[in-house]
Amino acid sequence: MNSQTSVLLSASELSLHAAGTVLLDKVSVQINAGELLAVIGPNGAGKSSLLKLLAGVSTPTTGLIKLGAMSLADCSVTHKARSVAYLEQRPHVYWPLTVRQVVSLGRLPHAGTSLENSALAVQRALVFTGIAALQERLFNTLSEGEKMLVNISRVLATEPRIILADEPTAALDPYHQLLVLELLRTLAGKGQGIMVVLHDLNLAARFCDRLLLLAGGRVLCDGTPEAVLSSGHIAQAYHIDAVYDSITKTVQTKGRL
Amino acid sequence: MKINRTGVLLVVVLLLLFGLELVSGPAQVPLLTALSDLINGNASISAIILSEVRLPRALLATLVGASLAISGAALQGLLRNPLASPDILGISQTAALFAVLVLYYGLSQYAWFMLPLAALAGGVLAVVLMLALARRIAGTHTIILAGVAISALTGSLTALALNFAPNPYALQEIYYWMLGSVANRSMNEVWLALPFMLAGWALLLYSRNFLDALSLGEDTAQSLGFALKRYSWLVILGVACCTGAAVAVSGSIGFIGLVVPHVLRGTVRAQPGRLLLISLPGGAVLLLLADIIVQWLPSAIELQLGVITAAIGGPFFLYLLLRKRHLFI
Predict the structure, then answer these.
(1) The predicted structure's pLDDT at residue A157
(2) Which end of chain B is more exposed for a tag (fewer CB within 10 A), N or C?
(3) pLDDT one-digit tens code per residue, B185-200
(4) What's the total number of domains in chain B?
């Protein structure tokens, strides 16, 4: 294993074809321990498809995903589910479950292990996101911001090494957007590897160590916010005219191209 | 596992109703004398009625009720749809159609397991059809409408099959297969259905964590370590075993699979996995109760069981709809 950074999850040359269209074309990426990595790119760039492949929810047409040193396909289902947690876009809860019940579902990969440990992990997750007071509330009665905190708690209850979150800040107010990214930042600081899909380039630049810019199913650029958010890259991916200010870490958009 | 108070209560009520079912019927049978005759090997009339008539009936009511209820709970969890149940989705009716085809066209004479196997195959076919439809038409209501269409179609085909069968009692038999009954059964039917039902219960209970995970949607369930296809098949087979075996020995009895999970959902805080286990005694209680009412009603010919389950289930379901709308999303 590399001495400087430890690679938790890596993908090489992932391609995904569905119904005659190429959704992803030879995408390679790695998620390192202690790193917050944002996947950015226009709608339809393949961001969600990439996350689903890495989460093992769907399988790539070609390419290899490795969890640590092992191929994801060779990992036991339990090992994979305990190591990689996936937070889907617009998560939905189908029955009138309480917050605590929803968060406890994050312990399913550990089914059959100590119930006490599970209760502790659930409690820690609820406290970490600051929603312990809501635990007896019904999930479907919460605001969007609260719901996202519940979902993050659910992911944390699994105690994964890798978190894959698909647009966790969509539909949230600015307060909750900042809160969610601060929480993810803190988790990365504790050594977890986190990949998050974001549409807000300012949030991505401000909070993330590294950005992966996808367009048309391909990696356009992978690197620091300064390197990725050049006017040229933004123009190529989004067809807009924008300037990145590396001091304030903000992107100013000027208009469509 | 925490002991659920409602579960304990249900088991106690189940035992009481089982006893009551044993003393219900046209002939007066002193239960204790009959039991002691049975144990001492005295072939008294009471003992024979108890062992040959009452016991199989009570056992079948218990097993069929439990199997239909757990099937309903599992289907609601799998489709994440509170309106799903074996009879509403047409699974019972398809199983009945297959059972009728085997029974009246002479195939059942080749092997004892042909009848339950055919009903089971009908069940699998109906659930697979249902899932295929569920993938294509996403809405809660369209799935139910598709189920109504399937059940109407297979119901009419069953009637047709019976009409063309070389059978002078066709009308009566149609009535039986459509509404269901556990009257006039022997222990043979119990032994026929039991292995399939136990296998079905085991499959469904084994899938309980999967059904819990599914309350977060298919993708998340998969990320939590549940292979979607494999577990869906386990649930399908489990439902088909339970419903197929139940239908093979009792016709298609309605409402149990729909109502019981709804009544009990609140007692397990809506968790689909926990709902499975408690639905077993729940369904048994409801069907035993219905069968006791059937026997106590002073009607000239005994009513079919489905009439009573619908008569109890229908109004109760309406009451639930009005009072607990939030449970139905």
Answers:
(1) 97
(2) N
(3) 889 899 989 999 999 9
(4) 1
